[in-house]
Amino acid sequence: MSADSRRKVRLQAVTAEEAGQRLDNYLLRQIPGVPKTRLYRAIRKGEVRVNKGRAKPEYRVQAADEVRIPPLSTPQLAAPARPSKIWQGRIHDAIVMNTSDLLVINKPSGLAVHGGSGIRLGLIESLRSIFPEERYLELGHRLDRDTSGLVLIAKNARTLRELHSQLREGRVDKRYWAVVHGRWPAYRRVASAPLAKRHTPSGERIVRVEADGKPARTDFRVLERFHGATLVEAKPISGRTHQIRVHCQHSGHAILGDAKYQNDQACELAENLGLKRLFLHAQAISFQLAGHTISLECPLGEDLKATLHGLRMKGQR
Q: For a surface tag, which of 22, 92, 301, 307 has the fewest beta carbons within 10 Å of its beta carbon?
């Protein structure tokens, strides 16, 4: 978008791919970087119009709607951040699936799925920068910054609505692999404990098991045993923040490399193995798309494979 176009009123036609999203979200995509308070004020005052009439932020835009977009940019707005060439290359290499409806990424550990809270550039912002020809890219679901693995990116509002519907109804099957400290009992197949978001005195956000928390359930299956550790498959039935990590900690088996929720023994084992990241990987996902079942898997990264090799060298149990 040129500087001149940002200073002029635009009449933008909604495409079929963009149809179905809220007006406020549509505008945030059309004029990135504008403060939300300024955007909502423009909608409230009627500066933004749909088909020459006023509309509310929650209005769902339809194909062929004509949206009046006023010049909301300010000179103080910084240019959109762009990922480094190294990160661009890593993201390109991480593409698992790319169709007209969906982009699937094997997200690297250390990359947040979106910016905010001190993070200027996340996966979704990076993808929009790398693929400017894609007019619509939205996260189908979220993944912790330190967790690697499969993330679904919708390329149109129809696909996003369908994915969100399946997630709400529990029809998306997500499987994670994690190495936890200690011997995970074979009989412990379910962790069901309510989770609540809290803040430490320093302001850090943390999730704890508390009676007034939101219901949460994770199913577990033992995949392989080692001396002092267990490789487990985790299937989250609910989708709470840090759910698998906190349920593992609450069960007495912290995930190796988890700087937020690990205990001293797990920390020592991770250091001995040279593990420098959270051993939690979104390994498989299954869902419906256009009447077909899509089942995807992605392998562990080389760093996690090296950790498993080190554990196997120590002996299995």
A: 92
H or E stretch at 169: none
d(CA 157, CA 162): 9
Tell me the pTM: 0.79
Grouping H, G, I as helix, E, B as strand and the rest as coil, residue 236 is strand
Task: Give per-residue pLDDT as tens, 4-24.
Answer: 444 688 999 998 878 888 898
Report the CATH fold assignment for 85-163: Pseudouridine synthase (3.30.2350)
Catalytic site residue 4?
no
User: Of residues 144, 212, 219, 303, which has the active-site annotation?
Assistant: 144
Tell me which DSSP letter residue 316 carries.
Answer: B
pLDDT in tens, 150-199: 999 999 989 999 999 999 999 999 999 999 999 999 999 999 999 999 98
- The yes or no reply on domain 172-314 and CATH 3.30.2350.10 is yes
